[in-house]
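Hi there,

I know you've been waiting on this one. I reran it after we fixed the sequence typo, so this is the corrected version. Both the input and the resulting structure follow.
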Amino acid sequence: MRKLTFIFATVFALLAFTGITSANQNNWENDTRMVFATLERPQISAASAIVMDARTGKVLFSHNADEVRAIASLTKVMTTLLTLEAGITDESLDVPFRVDNNAVHVEGTTMGLRENDIVTRRALCYGMMLPSGNDASNVAAVSVGGGIAEFVTLMNTRAKEIGMSGATHFANPHGLDQAGHQSTARDMAILTAYAMERSEGAELFREICASKSVRLEFGNPPYGRWLRNNNRLLTMYSGCIGVKTGFTDAARRCLISAAQRDAGDTATLIAVTLNAPDDWNDHSRMLDYAFAKLELLYDNWA
């Protein structure tokens, strides 16, 4: 797998050096179709889906990947990314502060924040990524952006900076249904790959989203409590290392997962499904298929 990663990196460097267009790069799977002729595409329930190599951006599977859809709590990948980046920049990740009392009042899933609680940005990131706390998202937005509207502006600016398309637009920091809050499976894969591989807080982001549970201290006064991860794929799929679940009435079941087949310096695959009634099995099938592609490439190019 290390050799495969080197092959991908070399191919992309050559493409960039010779000025090959992105459109031609997108024909990669067609150009290698003979290698994959023995593989059967997985049957999935998702309305939109994609599997991407996090390091190279190469798409190994896609289905309606550019259709614009509601994304529910997958939104929190961006909110967590910005919170980690801000905390690392000003060294405030572990500095306790009092929550904004208006921010904690929000419907849906929570990490258990109440008015006047004392919390840290690090704890908020766990609260967003594990139990999918909408309260954590709002509090983080006010802490980082000075207000929710201001933070949403930061979200959309950051989306453009990391290469997400114009199809993506954030309207809130938590993902509850709201007009104009939307993205695509491809853009969510791009965002997650950036958060896990290239962001300033990549190592900590990986640690957080891979955690099955965590003990944190927050409250007034702070006291210890356990938060548990909603992502069942962490125990269902061998090699899964995160990332985020989501559900709303408009978005239905949404899921981002990341997996590595072997320990060490191997390819990290990012899988995204939007509106997927059978998402756990969808991701298992998609990841198996994508890893099989990588093995075929290795066998044919080694």
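Quick highlight: The radius of gyration is 19 Å.

Best,
R. S.
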